[in-house]
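Go through this one:
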Amino acid sequence: MAMDLHLAQRTSLTQTMVMTPQLQQAIKLLQLNQLELKEEIYQEMLENPVLEMAASSDNLNPPNETSDSPREKAEDEAPAQQEDQFAEITGNTEEKIREEFDWENYLGEYSSSPSSSLGMGTHETPEETPGFESFTASRTSLTDHLTGQWRFVALNLTDYQRGETIIGNLNEDGYLVATLEEIAQMTNSQVKEVAETLARVQELDPAGVAARDLIECLSLQLERRGLKDDLAYSICQRHLKLLEKKDLPALCRALQRDKEEVLAAVDTLKSLDPRPARDFAATDPIYVIPDVYVIKVGTEYVISLNEDGLPKLRVNKAYKKMLSDKTAPDDTRRYLNEKLKGAVFLIRSIHQRQRTIFRVTESIFKFQRDFLDYGVDHLKPMVLKDVADDLGFHESTISRVTSNKYVDTPRGVFELKYFFDSPINRIVGDSSQALSSESVKNRIKQIIGAEDPKKPLSDQRIVEILHGSNISIARRTVAKYREILGYASSNERRQMF
């Protein structure tokens, strides 16, 4: 059958929703966290000359100032179609936003109590606040630490290059990941020469570095302590598998020693470090900046947005005046008109974003008030639809608002998505008595924390304990939650004494 292309004209009218660039920007702003929003604002200020940062001393929209031109009023109002589209995603806007905002009174207007009572502080300019780098020291890497020592130990330039190659092939735990043959090929050396160099590298600090496996790592540390003839050295060399299984009777039989001697040797082995380079790990801590604060004032909880360091935007008056100048070139006026629309929509979108985050957080803790009062055990199961129905938003809006955003509560700092949790049903009772999975995880943590280390509880036994508390849960679910909490199996948790 032949295929051909042809044009056809439609006579019927259809309505479609078009994602304008402004609408896409509004959606993007909604799912940014506080740090990302700050970066986005600074980027927009670089690209849009109409935007500028308002000084804290400026009086925006003074009462005696008139705005004047119909064009300015027209630019201050977003197109009705964009407003309708944006409302479908972020909820209905209850009030129109002025072209320039009184950001100083923003918290007081949109918080559940005056911002001055929260003690949130004021934003300081970078000139007034020293940089974070002034208070932090640079981290010394394992390579730098070992190379600095190796300079004083190497016998000659060739030996130094071999040692440097060995140091460069250590992993983050301090183990050598290349074979002697590979290093010999890289340095044009003999395997015997590489082995001699490796033995001297292994004498560097920290003890156990440049080992090729766990047995060699622990043995090097025991040798450094002068315990090569100790029982712990024998266990390390020949019976480490029995120690991993925590089979104390078998270990005693293999060594032909009594229990007390074996336990003393095990204590010595436990004092060693199987990852000698852990102090030089390059992983830096991840700092979380909350987007929302929940503060207890008396018997009530106050919700306040974190706007510390967030630029306060306004439209540059010089460009507005230039736009109203009839003698300005048409190209200039068209360019400024486009940039002015973008600036106004950005300010309005930021304002709407902040207000939406506040309302969503307020709704979340309306459902999770018991969590604030009593802790994780009283966390209720909740889904996005619960908050969406409460606010009249779409579920996708709630998902965007809660994504990658954190709230600082009297119970700690949590991601907003933490409060949306699947239910765990009761054995007896209706669905309204269901528990959240986080609450059950916390109970499993408490049960394992209170167990006898010599007789740790199996997953099945934990299931029976939870059943005794009227919690319906399967053994595989307990095993999954236990692994999420970072607990090993009962056999691996069992202590030998």
Q: What stands out?
A: Residues 372 and 411 are 7 Å apart (CA to CA). The chain is about 45% helix and 5% strand. Confidence is low (pLDDT under 50) at residues 59-128. The beta strands are 51-53, 292-297, 300-305, 313-315, 406-409, 412-415, 423-424, 435-436.
